[in-house]
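Hi there. Long-time user, first ticket. I'm pasting a complex I've been working with (about 958 residues overall). I'd like to know whether the download I got is complete or cut off, because the file seemed smaller than I expected. Thanks.
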Amino acid sequence: MKIVIIGNGMVGYKFCEKLVSKCPDRDLLSIVVFGEEIRPAYDRVHLSEFFSGKGAADLALAPASWYSDNNIQLHLSDPVTSIDRSNKTVHSHKGLTVAYDVLILATGSSAFVPPIPGVEKEGVFIYRTIEDLEMMQDYAKRAKKGAVIGGGLLGLEAAKAMIDLGIPDTVVIEFAPRLMPRQVDDAGSRILKSKLEALGLRVQTNKNTAAILGDEYITGMQFTDETHLPVDMLIISAGIKPRDELARAAGLEVGARGGIVVNDHMQTSDPNIFAIGECALHNGMIYGLVAPGYEMAEVVAAQLCGSVKSFHGFDMSTKLKLIGVDVASFGDPFIAGSEFRSVVFEDSCKGIYKRINITADGKQLLGGILIGDAADYNMLLQTVKNKLALPPNPEDLILGARGSSEGHENAGVSSLPDEALICSCESITKGQVCNAVTASGCETVDAIKKCTKAGTGCGGCIPMIKDLMVHTMKSQGKYIRNVLCEHFDLSRQELYDLIKVKELKSYDLVLNELGHGDGCEICKPAVSSIMASIWNEMILKKGNDTAQDSNDRYLANIQKGGTYSVVPRIPGGEITPDKLIVIGSVAKKYNLYTKITGGQRIDLFGAHLNDLPNIWKELIEAGFESGHAYGKALRTVKSCVGSTWCRFGLHDSVSFAIKIEERYRGVRAPHKFKSGVSGCIRECAEAQAKDFGIMATEKGWNLYVCGNGGSKPQHAQLLATDLDDETCIRYIDRFLMFYIKTADPLTRTAAWLNKMEGGIDYLRNVVVNDSLGLAAELEAAMQLLVDNYSCEWKEVVENPELQKRFSHFVNAPEEKDPSVKFEPLREQKIAANWK
Amino acid sequence: MSTITENITWFAACRSADVPQNGGVCVKYNNDQIALFNFTRRGEWYASQNMCPHRMQMALSRGMIGSQDGEPKVACPFHKRTFSLITGACLNGDECAIKTYPVKVEDGLVYIGIPEADGPLPA
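Hi, the file is complete. Here it is re-exported in full:
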């Protein structure tokens, strides 16, 4: 059978893939593909990643060699110009004539460009292909004011592209009264709009563009409400238009508003011609998502390979991350009427909106919308699709089971039937995923992806695949091992216990005794950190220097350009004028850029490796010591001024902060940790954003733990109240050592607590009520670290052997790295930008 | 490596004791920089260009060395791109490969082999 496929987009490629993998008589098929772009099919869904660093090769679904390896003739840059149905041949632009028995139209869609006067001007783009993006890239260099017509899914993707292109001011213009009118309701659109505005985009709804202004190139836009906007680059992303012109010319039936009419078998009005993807009009619907396109490809491939399969519409539920904001819409998002009820949760502070639509009897979930937090999407979608029973209070579905949410999620996965669709891009069911684990022995998400193809499309189902995998492995009685890397078949916690029991004090010994191979950049710093957390010996001795992460190895933070930054400890943020002057004069002498850090100390940037020992010699002589800014260790204990000066202060927060900082300075942990002490409930030290935070009360101190700033801010939780100084410190000792002993590498306290079964209640039991009987041991372990503290830089300054490593060239120790370049900025210098 | 057979200039870089065990140093060679690694654990020496091709930083000599499936590698301290110390290939991304050089140790001195046909090192 001769099969010709017109179009080499995502769906066209998927069809080839399915044909090759499914057909029992593959050898009897000849497959010829025509594509009009210069590249083989690529991932258009993730097109915007092209600007955030993914190259065309990363986006490719398969290299050109895949087609030849599978005996598929691929003609690129060669669009088909006509179909001769009576002779069953197609003719291409380059003059090829190819005969077919079966013809597949996978011609996709083009951008719909509304007939606005001026759309032909320079600086007006559409957002569809890699070529479009390449053209934008050149133009964007001169553009300052961007606009996007279209506030739908593609429009917002295009707006993200504008941000990635570095255009500082971009306006999204939507004709409808709300953003994403197909997926989101008015209230959801309001929340989405405020989130996008917080990210620097402007949004104007109810706007109809009348004209695009400018001579040769765009300078502005005129709207029907008489307003106008200065614009120097515009992307039109107002919708798609099915590519049906070939079909139309060949006399196939097409819809009144475009699209090639197909039946449930994806057959056009000519039974030998099929249409799949965005060009196909099924039951009056054009499907502009990739998942239904893949399903259509599956339907046709199955029929050609001898089985019976048909297409009966497709669920348009979708979950996306648009410019960093989660947006999901599932089932029927808008349903309303007396037989239905909606539960709505809105938090305009955090920018979260959730709506679920349920039957009036509260028994069945019909659909909903999630904005700002779509973590529940997979479970909710499965609940709709499989008509799962709802909990007695349906609001639990979006508000979460109070307390730990983990139980809920796991219970959810196990309650799904085997036929529940997990990956809708590839049509993979729960049964198939679980089978990959039990029958094929897949024990990583990557293995499951390889074996079943689940999770290889949009990737939205990967968390669920992982849950299913873990759940299935647990139910097989398998111990889920969380090993460090290929050199150690041990978890961090196991390694910690073994290193302690065996009293191992160098990386090489640990590798000899407990691991194998030569080590790597994952296990070296992890093992070094564990040894430091147990013994607190000078980290550059016993051959451990080369097992430290680079910053620890040079006791400074490597910065852009290869210079280092220097951060002396300023406990509690308190510093004398004399010490300030020393920092100033050292910075001047070594020509360093100075900046106050977020942790109430001063960072000196731009130090050459060779200068570090001399800089520290001067700082140490003036009474400073290492600030451990380079280590996974205690950073700062931030304080407010407290009762010494503040009229509201209840206790002396500065003195307590200094005491705390001096106690835990240099203590190394799985990750960096920070603290704060506030003198009253006003919380000026932001202690609740720290790994442990202390806040004065009338009766003593309240201790909060496991807070975090950073990319995923999380408030610390209250561990104990009204403590005196000594008890507070004892609890912190226990808390920190328990964290150091049990957390995975590079896990902050917040993430550690989030994974802990039983959460804060369990932690409180361990720390306050000593439920594990570990309290004395934990306190003793911490006291050992405190007693063994010494300033690392002081040791280097006093030890010529250690100093030798602080030179750039081994064979020219006096010379500095000549490749280091600086640029001036506001009377200081900064690192020259890198490529 | 197969092309570098004959015309090699052996350049005396430093004493073997100058290079930390299982670590690297940077060697100045005319106006170029070469990273030299003393992989004590394998009893082997390696040398490569010092510049990491990812962000053009002179940093590989300060990276951690190790192995992946038995292949010796170095990880750039900036963003942990890793490169084979044998072939120079990038092992965890699509950076271009780094140049590697032969190394020999004689009488406590470490020599790096510079192929004569080779132009200057990457700046």
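A couple of notes from our side: Residues 403-411 of chain A have pLDDT under 50 and may be disordered. DSSP finds 27 helices and 39 strands in chain A.
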